[in-house]
Write a structure and sequence with these properties.
Elements lengths: L2 H12 L3 H12 L3 H16 L4 H26 L3
Helix pairs in contact: 1-2, 2-3
């Protein structure tokens, strides 16, 4: 798959233009409508899921902040000085 073709399909998916992405995939791969749609739907689902590094880093940071807040509440209200 040529690099430029991949960029065009990815850009269409990112912009929410699934029909354009399907058309590009059909043109360059010679796929049928159903196969191209399933492929694009699979890519869009993978992109929307929080499995990339950015999403997991945000999840870890949020968990650490939540743990610190919980610890502070415990120290202030539960464990008297």
């Amino acid at each position: 798959m040529p690099q430029e073709f991949e960029k065009d399909v990815q850009a269409a998916i990112d912009q929410g233009k699934k029909v354009t992405a399907i058309k590009l995939l059909r043109e360059h791969r010679g796929l049928g409508l159903r196969e191209a749609k399933e492929s694009i739907d699979g890519c869009a689902t993978a992109i929307d899921s929080p499995t990339d590094n950015t999403g997991s880093k945000k999840t870890i940071i949020n968990s650490v902040v939540l743990a610190l807040i919980g610890f502070a509440i415990y120290k202030i209200f539960v464990e008297p000085s």
